[in-house]
Design goal:
The chain is an alpha+beta fold and 502 residues long. The chain folds into two domains: 276 residues, ATPase, nucleotide binding domain (Nucleotidyltransferase, domain 5, 2-Layer Sandwich), CATH 3.30.420; 161 residues, 2-Layer Sandwich (Nucleotidyltransferase, domain 5). The protein contains 18 helices and 24 strands. α2 packs across α4 and α14 crosses α15. It catalyses: D-xylulose + ATP = D-xylulose 5-phosphate + ADP + H(+). Keywords: ATP-binding, Carbohydrate metabolism, Kinase, Nucleotide-binding, Transferase, Xylose metabolism.
């Protein structure tokens, strides 16, 4: 039997998953690490924590599965997108990585727009200047930490730092590189004109490949640390959203995915680059060769429920510990005791600013419409609905771009809640299909590794064999009118709160 390994370097932890060639999960291991917030709106992590979690995860799945390392035929890497990792000439990390949800780079985005122009930026990179993307972070370092900027030998994305630690190779691939905002997504290579205009030395960028290409092989040093076999191939891999989409079978037009993780995403594959002239959704290269994707992002999806849990749910946490029950199951069940519209409460999930449809790093979240009739259950439901409305904003824009919507698949931690799935189906007014491939991005990059290793002929062929649909959730027609009314109210709220900053 041949096996494939997928690593997903996430925001809260790194998941390592071992699969057989039929896509069956053999063993998984997850190791968590810290997120640092030195100031409001800032978010950083230590890349060495990712590597430590990766080493532990690989060792765990190999030892516990009792699979021979030589039978692992390929490794795929996925990870949180947009993070800036800087290494010096000795290949040492210069400072903590500034990660995807960091919002400190508004001035740099204004500068990029002034120098390049919004329309030209969208034409080249598929997106307007965005605070979350890597380029604005690099310019922030140049402006605010010039000594660190001078030390830069290479800049890498989170998963590509793990690639370097495994292979000693500096490389990236088109899907994740698209989110750096330095790639020309039309040619699927670095944009020399953009780099020249912003005075960025191309030599600090890693070589860029298609996602299924073998970019390096495991070194002796990495093999000793992890238990992997020397020279095990490592493919390009993919950013977490493209990888998760492949794990969900989103590899052709018409099949859409919605994911509720820390952030929320609506994702569609396209055969040609499609652009929103306002830049409200991201257009990026897909991890499938010669395909692209459009993606709307809600910054605070699962993050909103996690924040609410930690801030307002101490009694619920005690209850979950006493009963030995998952805290999120308890919370979402309580949301069921409220009703559609949460008895008048509307939640705006802007805890870390917002991307879609509002490109606004400064907007703050809010609970609106609160009165004495409201209780704890209403607030929980309003959080689930607010995230749902934000994801519907993403879906609406994608439909307006003439992207076909034939089927919608749902995945992510939030999708494990029957209540949240139903709320989302009711808000979307589309049936949703859960995906049995629960490992998401790790499975997606394992599939890419299988293509690179010659186990599968193509990504599409592999997905047909491996990715299977699960439970179907149909929208409740009885609540369609109510949710339409509440959705209109939700959409009217942003102009009223966008300048409410202290």
């Amino acid at each position: 039997m041949r096996y494939l390994l997928g690593l997903d370097i996430g925001t809260s932890g790194t998941k390592t998953a071992l699969f057989d060639e039929y896509g069956n999960t053999i063993r998984t291991a997850t190791y968590e690490y810290n997120l640092f917030q030195p100031q409001v709106g800032w978010a950083e992590q230590d890349p060495n924590d990712w590597w430590e979690a990766s080493v532990k995860g690989i060792k765990n799945v190999i030892e516990k599965s009792k699979v021979q390392a030589s039978d692992i035929k390929g490794i795929g890497l996925s990870g949180q997108m947009h993070g800036l990792v800087m290494v010096d000439k000795d290949n040492k990390v210069i400072r903590n990585s500034i990660i995807w949800c960091d919002q400190r780079t508004e001035k740099e985005c204004d500068y990029m727009t002034e120098v390049i122009g919004k329309e030209r930026l969208i034409k080249i990179t598929g997106n307007p200047a965005l605070t979350g993307f890597t380029l604005s972070k690099l310019l922030w370092i140049k402006n605010n930490e010039p000594e660190n900027y001078k030390k830069i030998h290479k800049i890498l994305l989170p998963k590509d730092y793990i690639r370097f630690k495994l292979t000693d190779i500096f490389a990236t691939e088109v899907s994740d590189a698209s989110g750096m905002q330095m790639l020309d997504i039309n040619t699927r290579d670095w944009s020399q004109e953009l780099l020249d205009d912003l005075r960025i030395d191309r030599s600090i960028l890693a070589d860029v490949y298609e996602s299924v290409i073998v970019s390096g092989k495991v070194t002796e040093e990495a093999a000793k640390l992890t238990g992997l076999a020397v020279n095990t191939p490592v493919v390009g891999g993919a950013g977490d959203q493209a990888a998760g989409a492949i794990g969900n079978g989103i590899v052709s037009e018409g099949i859409i995915s919605t994911t509720i993780g820390t952030s929320g995403v609506v994702f569609a594959a396209t055969n040609t680059p499609r652009f929103d002239k306002f830049g409200r959704v991201h257009t990026l290269c897909h991890a499938v060769p010669n395909k692209w994707h459009v993606m709307g992002v809600t910054q605070g999806a699962g993050l909103s429920l996690n924040w609410f849990k930690k801030t307002f749910c101490h009694k619920d946490i005690e209850e979950s510990e006493k009963l030995g029950k998952n805290i999120y199951d308890i919370l979402t069940e309580k949301a069921k005791d409220s009703k559609p519209g949460a008895n008048g409460i509307i939640y705006l999930p802007y805890l870390m600013g917002e991307r879609t449809p509002h490109i606004d790093p400064n907007v703050k979240g809010a609970f609106l419409g609160v009165s004495l009739i409201n209780n704890h259950n209403d607030f929980i439901r309003s959080v689930l609905e607010g995230v749902g409305f934000s994801l519907k904003n993403c879906l609406d824009i994608i439909e307006d771009m003439d992207v076909k919507v034939d089927h919608i698949r749902i995945s992510g931690g939030g999708a494990e809640s029957e209540v949240w799935r139903q709320i989302l189906a009711d808000i979307f007014q589309y049936p949703l299909t859960t995906i049995k491939a629960s490992e998401g991005p790790a499975l997606g990059v394992a599939i890419l590794a299988g293509v690179g290793a010659g186990i599968y002929e193509s990504v599409e062929e592999a997905c047909c064999k491996i990715v299977k649909g699960g439970e179907k959730v149909s929208p409740n027609e009885e609540v369609k009118e109510e949710y339409s009314k509440v959705y209109n109210l939700y959409n009217s709220a942003y102009p009223r709160v966008k300048d409410f900053n202290i």
